[in-house]
UniProtKB/TrEMBL annotation:
<protein>
    <recommendedName>
        <fullName>Periplasmic binding protein domain-containing protein</fullName>
    </recommendedName>
</protein>
<feature type="signal peptide">
    <location>
        <begin position="1"/>
        <end position="21"/>
    </location>
</feature>
<dbReference type="InterPro" id="IPR028082">
    <property type="entry name" value="Peripla_BP_I"/>
</dbReference>
<feature type="domain" description="Periplasmic binding protein">
    <location>
        <begin position="50"/>
        <end position="310"/>
    </location>
</feature>
<dbReference type="GO" id="GO:0030313">
    <property type="term" value="C:cell envelope"/>
</dbReference>
<dbReference type="GO" id="GO:0030246">
    <property type="term" value="F:carbohydrate binding"/>
</dbReference>
<dbReference type="Pfam" id="PF13407">
    <property type="entry name" value="Peripla_BP_4"/>
</dbReference>
<comment type="similarity">
    <text>Belongs to the bacterial solute-binding protein 2 family.</text>
</comment>
<keyword id="KW-0732">Signal</keyword>
<dbReference type="InterPro" id="IPR025997">
    <property type="entry name" value="SBP_2_dom"/>
</dbReference>
């Protein structure tokens, strides 16, 4: 999946479909994303209620709008600024306004049951962040996203490969976490450490794990605080961040404080444009690509399928979960310097 190319193609397709239908709207994965941009149209409305718009979720939002327009339906998106109470209010308002389906990126994945209650009879697609209580998922409430059991694991495997090439069997790391308590935060943090252990790498924390809320500026500030408190970076081998934004924030702090990062191994998650560029420039070691276009197009199609009474997997090439037919997985992908050019 070449993200920039496919985003451009998706937007171009949306413009063409919009002119044809007269409707408006505010690697493995390459074939799948293309397959989802079907010629079928849906003359209805979708409400996309997003937790907040950072770089990754902003891309997800753009891709959802383009996908909806390519299918001839109206999609309106609302940013709740990470306020779950507001998000539930927006869900209730969308349902009262008779939207055909709701797509939601949860601000708090422990409160999915409240979303279901607020939505009433309106169909719901949970996108990108899976509810902690998966029992809320059924034929009217589904999940589309990437399997977080893989994200941290892939980070750890790529990091272990790089360390073994240098003959290292141990590593001192700094961990920068996303929002504490969210499923994907926990799985990313635990997954990378388990993968290192499985690969025979002894991992030791050089400082306490810090919660930076997936925010680049917060990560930059936390790194600066550590340096001010006397952290010796010469004893740190790698930076592990739950997303690319935090990894880049840490690197910016180190640059500003004139810390040599040439031997520092930095890994993130998402495969944002900035993260890809950092890998290409040799600043980051690796990232785990979370396919925003794939998630968005599958999420929009899932919403259309629910609203129109079609089978959930209709016109979606991604696989459903083996144990839960109400979950569609969009695979994570490993990115290093060896294949980063494929994603531009």
């Amino acid at each position: 999946m070449k993200m920039k190319k496919w985003m451009a193609m998706l937007v171009a397709g949306a413009l063409c479909a919009g002119m044809m239908a007269g409707c408006g709207s505010s690697s493995d994965s390459t074939d799948q994303s293309a397959a989802q941009a079907s010629d079928k149209t849906f003359d209805g409305s979708i409400s996309f209620i997003i937790s907040h718009k950072d770089e990754y979720l902003g891309t997800l939002d753009q891709a959802a709008k383009a996908s909806a327009e390519s299918k001839g339906c109206t999609l309106t998106s609302t940013d709740c600024a990470d306020d779950m109470d507001k998000q539930i209010d927006y869900v209730r308002a969308a349902a009262e306004n008779k939207t055909d389906a709701i797509i939601i990126v949860l601000a708090d994945d422990t409160r999915a049951d409240e979303v279901v209650e607020a939505a009433g009879d309106t169909k719901v697609v949970f996108l990108n962040r899976i509810p902690q209580d998966e029992s809320v998922l059924d034929e009217n409430h589904v999940y589309v996203g990437s399997n977080e059991d893989d994200s941290g694991t892939y980070q750890g495997e790529m990091l272990a490969d790089a360390l073994k090439k240098e003959g290292k069997e141990s590593v001192a790391y700094l961990m920068f976490e996303g929002t504490e308590g969210l499923v994907h935060t926990t799985k990313r943090t635990e997954g990378v450490l388990k993968a290192l252990d499985a690969a025979g790498i002894t991992a030791t924390a050089a400082a306490e794990t810090v919660d930076c809320g997936y925010d680049r500026t917060k990560a930059m500030d936390q790194m600066s605080i550590m340096l001010a408190e006397g952290l010796d970076m010469s004893k740190v081998d790698c930076i592990i961040a739950n997303n690319d934004a935090m990894a880049l924030g840490v690197l910016e702090s180190l640059r500003q404080n004139k810390v040599d990062t040439s031997n520092l191994k930095v890994v993130g998650v998402d495969g944002t444009n900035a993260g890809l560029q950092a890998i290409s420039d040799g600043i980051m070691l690796a990232t785990v690509y979370q396919n925003a276009v794939g998630q968005a197009t599958a999420g929009v199609q899932a919403a259309i399928n629910l609203a129109s009474g079609a089978d959930l997997s209709t016109d979606i090439s991604y696989e459903t979960d083996q144990d839960n037919e109400n979950i569609i997985w969009v695979p994570f992908e490993k990115i290093t310097a060896d294949n980063v050019a494929e994603y531009f």
